[in-house]
User: Fold this.
Amino acid sequence: MELPKFYTDLVNAVVSRAAVFVILSSVGLVLAMKYYRVLTKPKVAGPIGLGAAFLLFISFFDPQFKTVATLPDNVPIIMMVASVTFFVWVAFRQMALNDERLEKGLPPKEAEAGEVQKTFVWPDLVYIEFICLILFTVFLTVWSIALKAPLEQPANPAKTPNPSKAPWYFLGLQEMLVYFDPWIAGVLLPTMIITGLMMLPYIDKNPKGNGYYTFKERKFAISIFMYGFVVAWVLLIFMGTFLRGPNWNFFGPYEPWDIHKLEPLTNVNLSEIIYLQVLGVGMPRNWFIREIWGILLVLGYFVAMPGLLARFVPMFREFYKQLGMIRYSVFIVHLLVMGGMLIKMLLRWTINLKYLVGIPEYFFNI
Amino acid sequence: MPKPADPLSDTLYDMVSLNRLFFVSSILLIAATVWAAWQDYDRNWKHYQRDYNRIALERAEKERAAANSAINRLKKENAQVAELYTNLEAAKAAVAGRQADIDKLNAEREDHRGALEKALQKFQFDKSEADTAKQRAESAGAHLAEAKEKLEKLRKANSSDAASVESSLKGLEAHAADALQNYQEWSGKVNESKLAFEELNAKEVVALEAIEKIVKTREDAQKEVDRVEAELILVNRKIAKLEPSLSKTLLAMPGLDFIANPEHIEQDILPHFQEDLNFSTVGKIDRCRTCHMAIDKRGWTEKELPAVFRSHPNIDLYVGDNSPHPVSKFGCTICHEGSGRSVDFYTTAHMPKDAKQGEEWKEKYGWSPIHHFDKPMLPTPYIESSCTKCHASQVRVTMGEKVNLGRQVMEKVGCFGCHPIAGMENLRKVGPALNGIRHKVTRDWAYNWIRKPTDFRPTTHMPQAFDLSNTSDAEAQKKNTAMIQGIVEYLFENSELAHVKDAYPAPPAGDAAAGKKLFDFVGCVACHVAGDMNKAGTQYTDFGPNLSTVGSKLNAGWIFAWLKNPAQYFHYTSMPSLRLADQEAADITAFLLTQKHPGDFPNRKLPPVVEADVEATLLAFLQSSTPTKLAQEKVRAMSPEERLLDLGKRAIGHQGCFGCHDIKGFEKTKKIGAELTGSNATGSKDITKFDFGFRHDLLMGHTAGAYDRVAWVKAKLENPRTFDGGRFVEYAERLRMPKFRLTEEERDALATWVLSFRTRENIPVSHMRNLSHEEAVVNAGKTIVMQSNCASCHKVGLFPTRIAVSEEALPEIATARVYVARTILSDGRQVERVSADELAILRKKGVDILLPAGTWLFPQQITALLENQPPVTSVLVYAWGEAQIKEQVGDTKAPPFIVGEGAKVNPDWFFRFLKNPTEIRPWLADKADPGARMPTFGFTDDEASLLVEHFAVLAGEKFPFQYDPPLDEKVRGELVVRGKGVFERMECGKCHVVEGAKLTTDTPAPAFALVAPRIQKDWFAVWLRDPQSIAPGTGMTAFNEEQVKPDEVDALREFIWSLHKK
Assistant:
């Protein structure tokens, strides 16, 4: 069986345009969170899930998709996508139910009995954990028999595979390397993920949602998390696995990986846009003068923006009041870095922006 | 999870359900574990080993049956053997009759046994105690002696310490005395217990001897029978090893297989070869024999056997312990490549020899081309490309016929003219110099020749460089025309010879018929073909160009001058001088002028130059290095003539014509092609660095069996421009390798040779084929012999023939004498040549020399070989083919055999002859047949002396000096007189010219006056007795010992040698 051409063409056309794909995904996420009460109802979610499973199933009739999806390296990604989807649904379903109850003035489901439940470590905890452990061992054993470890010849630094891909869990970071210098993508951003997670308890002091599911009472926190996890992490891993082909080009899921595929190399720095395209003069010889606009822009984003937000946007004004100067700064910088990542990616996809600040003289680019 | 049924339960979940879930999970875990163990038990190579054991057992059973029936036949047919068996039966019966005696003796032994064992133990323990006591006594004694010595010294020095030492001395003395006493006591005890034990043991010995005496007759008879059944016993042992048994099955079971699994991975560990794992190097390990279990065993050759279990097809040369390449020393992947450490059909990187085999493998083994492995196995047709890893020092790899042919083809077509190739830097350019082309051909001819050489000479090696697949569209053709016009213009404007004024002068009038005769007989046909332009010559007559159309190309003056002295026209020509007289040269010239091209080629003209095309083409080249505007200005500034000349120069530089031809102005220009050796060698460079263009069909995985490296090389040779297919490339940037006229076989061989270019691997010196001085001489000499095409006239070498020495093979070789060019040692090793000293050393080591190099082997000697222990199954010799002998015998005027020439002629004479040949056999020339003539090759001194040494080494002679002990003049005088008598009696003068007589064309044999300076003395005796063994077909009579008595040979020789007047 062959997939209908209009379908594969459509999917390829949408998905292989990274900007469209990411924006659509983000919009989808926002919509899903807006209409979560309807969407998570089994009557709605069921058919959506089945439809997705059906699309996945028929995709295997496409030779390219099948080749990529059945690689022993990539099977975990499929499992990850499926399990993330499932657990997100479970969580949002619980939230929807609880939020309804809360609106009616009822306590959350978890507190239905009216008191906090207590159970025994044995057998309620340990026994179940032990069973899970056994089942998971079975799963790992069967997996390792069914899909043999994809071992290759000894690594050869002179001959790297094309495409050269990081282990699946690092594909998101590898994707960022396309847009940022290694010191940002490989050092700064991962560090900020860790520091961001560390500071969470000091920033998020909202006691609501402890011990029970709720969206309504933690909208901002959960939305940010969903963006950071689903879009900036899972989606990038998905893209790295299925959409990045030879020479790290972007391919649609049904588009054959042609090693000769060429894309025009027309990326420009912000300074080039300003001096060559807008002003029509030559590039200044002094790097500082040349990059001053980008430097101002970045400084503006990280220095002026927090103040402006705290001053003019009511939600951030509230945050500033609650958190105080220091904690607000820490929080807002992390938030802006996370947002900046997406902004930079969008700029690359839309106006071929290479760097906002490009100082190759000092190996410093942003 | 279900809640507990009892609402008052303490637990959150229902325990019964949890228990059930636990039970099911545990069962699943056990099942998964069993499955994992089974997976290991079920590995492919284990199946192969089981299959092999089964087949090996079947074969062994068959061998046992054969051995049994052979014994039965012997029993029936041979009375002595039958008697052995009756003797055994009788002896058995006799022993059985005395069983009661044996039982009684054994019962007695049993009675004593308790006491005996006890006595033995007591003796052993006492001995042990005594040994300990002895050691203690010795040690105490030594301490005492030391202390005494110390005291002595202290006393002498009047030290105050003396007193304390003295006091301790007493203690030491007492201790030593005690120890000594203890030792003496224990010695006494040991003696006692020893006596007691010996007494008891004597009884045991007596009893055993008595039993042995009874049984001995039976055992002796059994030994006799065993000798008859030796083979059967061996087979039985083999079967016992192969037969399945409970313990073997148990040890191979999953879970127990870690103890001592009879199924195990067979490894050849090769620490000498280092494998580069990129971050470190490790010793090579080949596990191929894990599945290929019969690869090192003889006789597994039946077609019905699964391919995996066959013997190596060339087990005498490879794998076998006695072969030059034993598997324990070389492993498998050093030649075959592939992943030696893997034990799975896919991961070992097997490569089929063609698409058909690929399909077969897909079906049978689920094979697919391997990804992620840089060096998959070489497909077997190209395996010889691995030879040069170790045999790089040899110009011709022994037995490497395909890789040798490849090298030969490359030397012939001259790939090294454009491609830098290590080891081929110093070869002569394969085409003629073009510095005097103006005097040789016309512009019309040159233009049309370059355009399509095969139109004029279908057999030419000159490749076609234009109108190929990427330059055949209309636009490109216009540019091609301009390019060739430019080339012709450049060549003709740059041709000047010092010795020619305007044109070569016209030769004297010649007779074409006489010329034809000369052409046929004087030696031209050794290298050239005439009369049929389509006739491809043999390996030898293809050496020079086919001359069938040469009359439409050359002018009389040039041909005449060329024939008289080829080197004058261009110094590096292979064409020798035949020392032709003016008239002879004129006759041949006349004949060659009759050799006209039959087609329209002679009428083809140089088309008129189209200015626009020249300009456009020139611009196309200029633009790649100069800004467009500047290039246009530059072109405009030139006159039309200048443009054409400039284009010609660029075209020659672009196309690399100077790689094969000497062209003025290109003396220092670099070669234009990619280097085929070095760090990016074709045989090893990364496959992703090959440009496949749109030839996806050549990529591994697209076509079953396509090994992309081989496929690329072969496609390139077939159509050098194929990778431009489907691409839009500027004219000046297109692929430019010209197309060579090669047969499929030649392309295959050339591909093998090209694939042998690899990045140097670390082959240890001990594993390299290192040449001795003699071998190096043979090697270098062989090159000159081939470059001079000696073999076209002379039988220089013999054909390597593997002669199976077996009774069946005898008739096949009984008629032929064979010349042993390779010494074969009884341990199976072969050496090109062994010096006398080495021979002595080898003999001392117990290695017999079966066939020393340089000897003739007669049928009876071959028979003798069969009787050798261990029998030799096959020997590699260089032998005359019977056809060759017939050819030589039928033609008394054929140029002489020069095998063994080094043993025949004196080196200094040989050297002079090579430099300047003189006539030896004038009778070869007569009116009907002018006779072949040894040409003057113009060897340099180095080449000539190398050749002399080459032939000396081949004949096993010492070079360059040989001592001829002086004879007492009186004795010599007597010998000469006696020799003269023999000479007259045998009527030697009937054929040979003696002193004074004139050498004429009627003389059937060489003049004796020529003998002394030319011939080696010790060769004479062999020649006299058996000239046919040296030169089959010679007219010389053989003289046996009745005709010339042994003691007369020296006399005859001295007489003949005396005929030479200094």
